[in-house]
């Protein structure tokens, strides 16, 4: 998820810094490569990409998805395209953003593909560090999971669920709505992430500021325990430290539940979705390999991450490991939806829940 007031404020400071460093040069050859591919049949296009990628020999991804999961993806990609090495830098959202910005300021452009969630995507675009690419492999992906200009496309989504410890909370007692979380009986029994300002921002935008602030002030009166990290929250809840946690990426607790953990889940309406986007880095030194890799991530890669690794797809027709997470509609945390008020909402979240 997007990271706290400190995360947001750090980004705005960096934006101000890099804005004074001068214009960044145009990406080498990416527009020409895209022009070259225009109008080609699928087989011809693939052959042209492979020919160019063999000369480039490598593609580099900067991303936020875990190393173990990405190794599964990289091994599958290299099995299909053995002539390409895959370089990988993995960090949290702020770490990925800072790495791209720092290298750009130094005139180095190592990343070819960036993989991250919404606010990172927005700030990179604002900072002129993304190259638009409308992949033909976008076909079939829901419109809420991409922008019209080609700066980002979601290759999977993280559905947000409320989880509860089934030893401490009966299923008929578990909250079924956001308002149920306000019941005083949950005072001191709720776990939240101290960096849930993106959830805060999404619901504030959905409900409106007046209703949203009223809701979150009442939620704060239930004195939620604030932790850092949704995986930690999930583990502590399974161990009995908390009763409920309203905003957790559902695939992980469902995986733990399959292994016997005492965890139940509910999807609260609106069901929140936090997509993971793939993007083309500006000043791209390996355009053929980049296009080949992104096209693969949006097709074969999405199939693997959904069917094998338990994420939720952004296109219908995949064999979902957790079909109970599939809904006809989500409140998708898009870059544009979060961007306009992200700084002010981060500050409000901080004040409301005393995280700063």
Describe this protein with a few key phrases.
D-Maltodextrin-Binding Protein, domain 2, 11 strands, alpha/beta, 2 domains, two-stranded parallel ribbon, 43% helix, 13 helices, 356 residues, nine-stranded mixed beta sheet
Give the ordered list of helices and strands.
HHHEHEHEHEEEHHEHEHEEHEHH
Whole-number tally of structural domains: 2
The radius of gyration is 21 Å
CATH domain topology of the largest domain: D-Maltodextrin-Binding Protein, domain 2
Shape verdict:
globular
Beta-strand percentage range: 15-25%
The share of residues in helices is 40-55%
CATH class annotation of the largest domain? Alpha Beta
Number of helices: 13
**Oligomer kind:** single chain
Mean pLDDT: 90
What would you note in describing this structure?
- The chain folds into two domains: 5-155 and 274-325, 3-Layer(aba) Sandwich (D-Maltodextrin-Binding Protein, domain 2), CATH 3.40.190; 158-273 and 345-353, Periplasmic binding protein-like II (D-Maltodextrin-Binding Protein, domain 2, 3-Layer(aba) Sandwich).
- The chain contains 13 helices and eleven strands.
- Strands 1, 2, 3, 4, 5, 8, 9, 10 and 11 form a nine-stranded mixed β-sheet that branches. A two-stranded parallel sheet has the order 6-7.
- β10, α11 and β11 (331-332) form a beta-alpha-beta unit.
- α1 runs antiparallel to α13.
- It starts with a helix and ends with a helix.
- It has helices spanning 5-19, 30-37, 42-56, 67-80, 93-105, 118-126, 197-207, 209-220, 230-238, 251-258, 287-307, 335-339, 342-353; strands at residues 58-63, 85-90, 113-116, 130-131, 153-165, 191-193, 225-227, 244-249, 263-266, 272-281, 331-332.
- Mean pLDDT is 90; it is low at 11-28.
- The chain is globular, with a radius of gyration of 21 Å.
- It has 356 residues and is α/β, with parallel strands linked by helices.
